[in-house]
Amino acid sequence: MQRRHFLKTAGLLAASLSALRPALAQSSMDHAAMGHDTAHGSDGAMPTAADNSLKLPSGERLPALQPLVNESSDAGRFVGSLRAAPVPVPLWGDGAKTTFWAYNDSVPGPLIELWEGDEVDIGFENALTQPSTIHWHGMPVPPAEDGNPQDPVAPGQRRRYRYTLPAGCAGTYWYHPHPHGHTAEQAYRGLAGPIIIRSKQDPLRHLPERHLLLSDLKLDAQRQIPANDMADLHDGREGQFVLINGAWQPVITLAEGERQRWRIWNATSSRIIKLALPAHEVQLVGTDGGLIGVPQPVDSVLLSPGERCELVVTGRFKPGQPAGLLSQPYERGKRMHAEQEKDEALAGIVAYGMRPTLALPASLRPIEPLGAPGFRRKIVLSENMADPKAPFLINGQSYDMNRIDGTGQVGRIEEWEVIADAHMDHPFHLHGTQFQVLARTVDGIWEDEPFLAWRDTVNVPAGGMVRLRFVQTLPGLRMFHCHILEHEDQGMMAQIDFLPG
Question: What range(s) does the Plastocyanin-like domain occupy (predicted)?
Fold first, then answer.
């Protein structure tokens, strides 16, 4: 069984209109942006009302995610371009600007919508002062096209990423940088964007969609994004503001009885977010690698950095329950920052009349369990704070780009037992494929996973273990690492060379 996360009743905080910039992202649905600071400051304390440097100003509306334009007129082919560069954003009423790093001047980056079978050709220009890459997180692309740290794009240089999407890969993915030693900084300064791969056999295509990309913003007294301090490097960075599509505490419209499909991305560098919608009916219908077999009613969903989910949300507006999208307390083992202690509002939800409740299929797609493994491994994630040069380890070693940590075989089923021998949670991510979680430990006891799903990221709680199976279908070098990006940059990453079968 899976550990259950139960709801706590909490009222929505009073909110005032705020948005980060009017040219950012999401769907054609109408919604405005609201804001009220409920997050912890960099020292773990709540920002005070007098601390005006930490208050985002009023704005007009929550923007819509702008799509990356397909420059190709050929069916089944997507051609586009992304440019990573600093961009000053006028957040403040007095004209002051905060500098982000952004793809195509958009925070978050443009939404890329693809179809199974598409030939993809996306150019990348690096206008930063650091090397960078684009990693197509969770997608089945060849290693040479996956933006690995071995393939940096130097400042001022360009490259093209080209790959063809296989059948059966429809799901909710994202893209972000992956240059070793710079990944966390480039992500927390704004470099991340959503990807949707669609299927023509999608059983939920009749539902209206919302796209909610969660990111994290930390500001200093000068209203700029500061570098990580020692506490951020240890715990993983969490800022004062959790943003949705670049806006702080937006308002989402949902009619009584209306059923919507929500795709949600956790694109923060380290924040584990426990999401809840206590006033509404919520069913989990998809994970990282697409739809699950049967809708699962849920009270809350835990999303670690890098994870995505698909929810079907039905407007109920239960009396006495907060109507909005909440982040609930979850302790992940931080030592140098305070843990979240109470429910915090990420978005308000307002009713706009009544709508018919559209049908939700009883089954979504077949998922066959992977068979008996041809090879087993143990992966131990550990911490060694006595060594500042190698504080985060995998199987006792800090990442070395020139070292191969093992070999695998294309087409062979592997079973991995991932162990967090640590005082913090460590979200585990494997490149190049999706895996099935078989079981997890809860309070030291193994419990079977209640349903099959395809994932590429899974949280491994402090002292816990997760058992998973996967198959790599393409040969080459694949990374696996903690997706708290500060930990990845400091050595909690390894690599396996998968050889042709």
Answer: 95-201, 236-314, 389-496
- CATH number reported for the structural domain that contains residue 340 in this entry: 2.60.40.420
Beta strand ranges found along 218-315 (DSSP E): 241-244, 247-248, 251-253, 259-266, 273-276, 281-287, 290-297, 300-303, 308-314
Contact partners, residue 74, CB within 8 Å, separation at least 6 = none
Domain-embedded: residue 167: yes
Distances (CA, A) of 137 to 20, 121, 273, 349, 461: 25, 16, 19, 30, 22
The answer to whether 484 touches 427, Cβ cutoff 8 Å, is yes
Measured between its terminal Cα atoms, the distance across the chain in Å is 35
CA distance linking residue 44 with residue 219, whole number of Å: 14
Q: What is the pTM of this model?
A: 0.89
pLDDT at 214: 97
380 within domain boundaries: yes
User: Is a pLDDT exceeding 80 seen at residue 455?
Assistant: yes
Same-domain pairing of 43 and 192: yes
Q: How confident is the model at residue 328 (pLDDT cuts 50, 70, 90)?
A: very high
Residue 429 included in any domain: yes
Among 425, 332, 334, residue whose Cα is nearest residue 43: 334
As a whole number of angstroms, the distance between CA 48 and CA 45 comes to 9
